[in-house]
């Protein structure tokens, strides 16, 4: 969620700063995890290719073995490309869902289907080029603006942790989100943690 929306929900400046900082760290950690996995895969592919090249040289004139090594190299490259494509798609999905949630899309999946993401590219800040323009056009067009919530977010009492206060009966909805978030963090699943926070925010629950 945006800073202005959090402030309109009645949160203090310290609470808003804390939420924005935590969300930013979660997103950066998720990006870092994705990039680390991609780099690791590329290293593994390079090592396998080196080993296959050595075997190829050792094979000499053995045509059958040379052919088998070539097939293994091709399969290895194809598998690496497929995995990298999956990682890039996951990164794309997270960025799109974050942007649509911030734009108050009522149904992220429905609005996402209207976006042109075939040639989506990321800028240096990790945002999808042209995505914001597409979202603004959809939210303004007569035939699609109904897909976005134009109402001002209601000012509700902050349900998360408040310094100096305690509660004996936790909000069941809040508790459910917190349990899921704790489990995602326990499994070091940064992407799932981001998605849970976004889902909770759309439901009026702010997670720290």
Kindly describe this structure.
By secondary structure, the chain is mainly α. The protein contains seven helices and no strands. It has helices at residues 3-8, 13-59, 63-102, 108-112, 131-140, 172-186, 190-202. The chain is elongated and about 75 Å long. The two termini are 13 Å apart.
In a few lines, what is going on in this structure?
By secondary structure, this protein is an all-alpha fold.
Overall shape: it is elongated
Helix proportion range = 55-70%
N- and C-termini, Cα separation = 13 Å
Number of helices: 7
Secondary-structure-based class equals mainly alpha
The average pLDDT score comes to: 76
Give the tags.
208 residues; mainly alpha; 7 helices; 65% helix; elongated
Compile the SSE list and pairings.
Layout: H1 3-8, H2 13-59, H3 63-102, H4 108-112, H5 131-140, H6 172-186, H7 190-202
Helix pairs in contact: 2-3, 2-7, 3-7, 6-7
